[in-house]
Each structure stands twice: as C-alpha cells, then as structure tokens.
Design a protein that fits this description.
The structure is a single chain. By secondary structure, this protein is α/β, with parallel strands linked by helices. The protein folds into three domains: 233 residues, FAD/NAD(P)-binding domain (3-Layer(bba) Sandwich); 103 residues, Alpha-Beta Plaits (2-Layer Sandwich); 136 residues, no CATH class. 38% of the residues lie in helices and 20% in strands. Helix 1 links the parallel strand 2 and strand 3. Helix 1 runs parallel beside helix 4, helix 11 packs across helix 12 and helix 15 packs across helix 16. The chain is globular, with a radius of gyration of 23 Å. InterPro entries: FAD/NAD-bd_sf. This is FAD-binding domain-containing protein.
C-alpha cells in the first residue's frame, strides 16, 4: 500500500452518517450509549455500564484482542481499574511480563546500537499486557453489569434524529442516545467529516516478534537509531524493542518513521525489506536467519493538524484514534484510550445526565489542546520533506542534543516527553538550555523546520503557556462547579469540559 492510499481504502463514505428531522420511528430499546468498534471500545463501554448507563457494543468481527502484546506502564493500566472497567486482579492477570530499565540511544554519539552513553529510565511502556486477556476481562465485567454485545455485526450507517441516533446494524435498527465512534483511523464517520482528506503526517511501523539466542532481554529500548537519514529514502528510521512474554529469548522489535502522505514515499513492503536488512545490526545478530520469526507486524498511523476531531453531528462523539487525540509522535491505540479514559467516561456520563448530546455541547469534549498541536514541530523535525536534503546526521544530532538536555534538566522534564506529553515548563526549559549549550545548531533547526511551521508552532507554544498558567485554577473550578446547583446542568457540563481542555491541553494531567 502506498502512503497516498492511506485514506482511500474503503468505499465512499459521504452518506454514512446523516441528520434527520423529527423523531425516529424505529422500534425497540433505546440504549444510553452505542459503542461502534469493540476491541478498544469495550474498555470505555465497561466503565460506562458499571456506572449505570445502558450500553451496547457493535463489533464487525469477533470481540477479542490480538495475540501481540500491548506495551504500557502499570500506572496506565491502573487507570482502567480506577474507572471500573477491570479489577486489580484483572490487571494482574492481564500482565504477562514486566521489565526495566528502559533505554534511549542515538547513532553517532557512542550510543547508537550499544549501551554506552544511553539515557536510562524506568517504568515507561515496561508492562506487556495480553490484549486477548484484557478485552476478555472488560467484556466479562461489561456483560455482568448488563451490557449488550453485537459481534460479527456490520455497521452500515447512522441516522441522527431529534430523540435518538439509529444505527443500521446489518439492516437491524439499534437506537441510542449517544454514539461513541471507536472505529479508529479508518472510521467511515471520521472519513466523512474529514472528507477523505489526505493526512498531514503518517507514522509507519513495521516489526516482528522473534526468538534468538543473541537477544538481550535485560532491558527494553524506547527509542533508538542505528543509522543516519537513509540516502535512498531521505528519512530517518527509529527503533524500539521490548522483551516478549512468550519465552526468555523472545523479543518484539519495531522500526518506525515519520513522513507525509506524498505518493513518492516508500511502501510498507519496501520498509519491511529495510527492516530485514537493518534488524540484525540493531539487535546484534549476524544475519536475520539467526532469528526465528513468530509474527510480522506493520501498521499506519495517520495524523491531522486539526486534531482532536470535533464532531459535526448531534449524538455522535469520536474517541480514541478516531478522535485524533493521540500525539503525532505516538502509535495511538491503547495508550490514547488509557490517558483519556477518565475524562471521556466522565464527560459521557455527565452528557447523558444533563442531556447535553447536541453538536455544540459534544464539541467541547474534543476541544483544542495546545500540547497536542505543539508536538507537531517534533514530528516535523524528525522527518524529511520531499525534495529537501538536510545533513544525514541532522536528526540524530537533534535527538542527542535534545535528550541530553532533558536528562540534565531532570525527570519532571524528561518523563512527560517520553510519554508523548508536551508541557510548557519542560519544553521551555529544554529550548532555552538547547540554545545556550548548542547555539550554532539552532539556525540549522530553523532552516530545516522552515519559518512558516516555526511561526505556527509558536502560536501553540504561547497557548500552551496560557493553559499551563490556568491549569490549577481550572482544576479547582471544575471541582467547585460540579455540584453547584445555581448553575444550569448544561452550563456546568460545558464549564467542566472547558476546564478539562485546559488541564489536558497543558499536559497537566500527567504532571500535577
């Protein structure tokens, strides 16, 4: 598949979701929430069902998780416990492996594919979770609380009426007050809203789970490079690797890169060819033949500058990857759900209670977040534009300088960045320190990023500063207004969403 095909792999979606006037004449039970897309959607569905909502999950295949482990931190997994989606015992049972330390290293600085000079941290993506066990646990709690699952059921369209939304599930109408779109990047509702527009950026990932005697599973790699910018590709390959629970010599390695969606970009097949060539260098093998392959992995993660995605319909709200809430630097998926699950479930519960299910109210749930928009400059600097020819070691130099600076500034600066969260104080300190320690490199960054993107980024950086200043008062106001009866339920809902947008938009949900 070419990158230019990333948003055009399904049939036309112009009429998938429609607004209809008046009340629906469809018969049957009206659910509070219908979740479209169950593999990750069941996590949110379980939390909402346990809070008293009547929820139905619609999944086009069998509702089960994949074999390949998800890597998260234990603290992130505990967020599912806090919202009631699983129990602590479930979290323990889903955890297949835990490991530390976690390393970062970059080619050309004495720490490319060795360990000397590595930046070492702990407890980030250090837990291997079984998707099959996690989805099964969430489904069990969901169904025990009265939730309904429609699996192997194709969602053909959604019609929004004044009194409910009606989902066409294999020709059978399913009524719900609120539809949560958890169908990921290829959601037909999202593609309709975005008008099948080409993404602004793409993170392309290839990898494998394999067994080899030479694998060192005493640690994991969060990010590493072993080469400079590829001559024939004009882009930078990054790597990460995690021990796998299937055996002491089993290891999952990913090679990923950032690019735009220009048709000249390499295909997944050609990236896999590069992966087979470079993986032995990365993992210290004599040949790829020294590894016994168990699974081959690949994926596309499109990103859009105008994210998070605001809904264009009453009663329809995108969550997870469908909403574009993930960082342009991340792979999305489970991590995007876990970070926001408390916010999303709380917002849905309050929207149902206050009947704030119209387009205007729901758009406040996925409001502008400057921390997300500010991350675009990093993606820009970690990729190579078509036609440009930066020095081959530019990205590696940038990463070495950036990580060395953040390491000296301490965990409160480094840790959020490693979790794909941008904060004003952390970013500000890093930029000042980089300018002071590497003043001659700053013009090279400006030249490669471009004046336009820098000016656009500065607007988001200024907004990030304002949001950071307002985050503590916003948190206090959100708590105060929650039970303040003098304010109408609708106004309370909107104020609390605006406060959450400030807190999350400043990255302060990660750093108090």
């Amino acid at each position: 598949m070419r990158r230019g095909d990333a948003t055009a792999t399904a049939t036309a979606t112009a009429a998938f979701a429609k607004r209809r006037e008046g009340a629906s004449d469809a018969r049957g039970e009206t659910y509070d929430v219908a979740v479209a897309g169950g593999t990750l959607g069941v996590l949110v569905a379980a939390a909402l069902q346990r809070r008293g909502a009547r929820v139905v999950v619609v999944e086009r295949g069998e509702l089960r998780g994949r074999e390949q482990e998800w890597n998260v931190s234990r603290e992130e997994l505990e967020r599912l416990v806090r919202v009631g989606a699983i129990t602590t015992e479930d979290a323990d049972a889903c955890t297949r492996i835990e490991f530390n330390p976690i390393r970062c290293g970059f080619h050309g600085g004495g720490n490319g594919n060795g360990n000397a000079g590595d930046l070492v941290t702990r407890d980030i993506l250090n837990t291997g979770v079984s998707p099959a066990a996690l989805v099964e646990a969430c489904r069990k709690r969901f169904e025990e609380a009265g939730g309904a699952v429609l699996e192997r059921a194709s969602l053909r369209g959604v019609e929004v009426y004044d009194d409910c939304a009606v989902l066409d599930v294999d020709g059978v109408p399913v009524r719900a007050r609120l539809v949560l779109d958890c169908m990921g990047f290829q959601s037909p509702i999202v593609r309709q809203i975005r008008d099948d527009r080409k993404p602004d950026g793409v993170c392309v990932v290839v990898g494998s789970c394999a067994e080899a005697d030479a694998f060192d599973n005493s640690s994991a790699d969060l990010i590493r490079t072993v080469t400079d910018i590829e001559e024939d590709y004009r882009g930078q390959y990054f790597w990460e690797a995690f021990p796998a629970s299937t055996g002491p010599r089993d290891r999952t390695t990913y090679m990923f890169t950032y690019m735009d969606a220009d048709e000249s970009r390499p295909s997944i097949a050609s990236m896999l060819d590069d992966y087979w060539d470079l993986m032995p260098l990365y993992q210290g093998l004599d040949s790829i033949e020294d590894a016994k392959l168990k699974r081959v992995l690949f994926g596309l993660f499109p990103t859009y500058r105008d994210s998070p995605l605001k809904t264009e319909f009453d009663r329809v709200l995108a969550i997870g990857d469908a909403s574009g809430i993930q960082s342009p630097l991340s792979f999305g998926g489970l991590a995007a759900i876990l970070r926001h699950i408390s916010r999303i479930t709380g917002a849905c519960e309050e929207a149902l209670d206050a009947d704030c299910l119209d387009r205007e109210a729901l758009r406040t749930v996925n409001a502008y977040q400057p921390a997300l928009s500010a991350a675009w400059l990093f993606q820009k600097c970690m990729s190579v534009e078509v036609g440009s020819r930066p020095k081959r070691d530019f990205i590696n130099r940038l990463m070495r300088i950036n990580f060395n600076v953040m390491s000296r500034l301490g965990e409160d600066v480094l840790r959020p960045f490693l979790q794909d969260v941008v904060t004003f104080k952390g970013l500000g300190k890093t930029l000042v320190s980089m300018t002071l320690t590497e003043p001659l490199f700053v013009p090279e960054i400006l030249m490669n990023a471009g004046v336009g993107p820098i000016l656009d980024w500065f607007k988001h950086f200024a907004a990030l500063g304002a949001y950071d200043f307002l985050a503590s008062p916003a948190a206090a106001l959100a708590d105060t207004v929650k039970d303040f009866s003098a304010v109408s339920p609708r106004r309370r809902f909107i104020i609390r969403r605006q406060c959450e947008a400030i807190i999350y938009g400043a990255g302060r949900d990660v750093i108090p």
